[in-house]
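Weekly puzzle thread! Below is a chain. First person to post its structure in token form gets bragging rights.
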Amino acid sequence: MRAEQVSVDERIYRSIFEGVLNRRLSPGTKLPEPELCALFGASRAVVRRALEKLAYDGIVALRPNKGAVIAQPTREETHMIFEARRALECSLVQLATQRASAADIAALREQLNEEHEAMHRFDQPSWARLASSFHLRIAALAGNAVLERYLTELVSRCSLIVGAYEPVGNAPCEHGEHCAILDCLEAGDAAGAMAHMSAHLRELEARIETSRMPGEKGLAHLLGINPSQPVRRLAHSRKVSRPGVP
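Winning reply:
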């Protein structure tokens, strides 16, 4: 599709989506409508249409009377996203093993070389972009546009999680793990490729610092009470003391 054929709301969507994918936009980043209108020369109706689509895809959170922000996934959402991604990517890598040509494998191998170079020059933005692209290119080789579209959304949501909550200095994806997946693809070893992909995504999830994530905190947590400890019942008293009052 030529650039002039892309609608304004689609350009806004792609710009924000790619900003998340490349980790330029972190969770909680505000997306003021007036600023987006000025940046893209768009009306508020067009900007809102793009933001609503991003919210539908889980990339943006729309807050009543406060505007839009980049979504902040919780621990529970993170687990579900990675679980869905493992199931989807194992199917995609199996299909890719059956359908990838020698030229496809060579192109992926060249991309892994670029990823390795970016890693060694500490170019984090390129590193992150190439790591995400590796997974999306395997999805493209699977030849199923529907599954590929679902993975594109999941990879973007994972980029949001990894960029915000993985320890500083870690690789967004381990280069050696990518090499192992590609070796299996080249050998036509679908079972091996699926096993390496599943292990790779589990390892990526394990590196996430979930302690820094917003969680679903219940009343016990907010009151500083450990619900696993037995409750000590107090004897009835005719007078209830107030804090600071004898």
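Puzzle host: Confirmed. Bonus trivia for everyone else. The longest strand covers residues 60-63.
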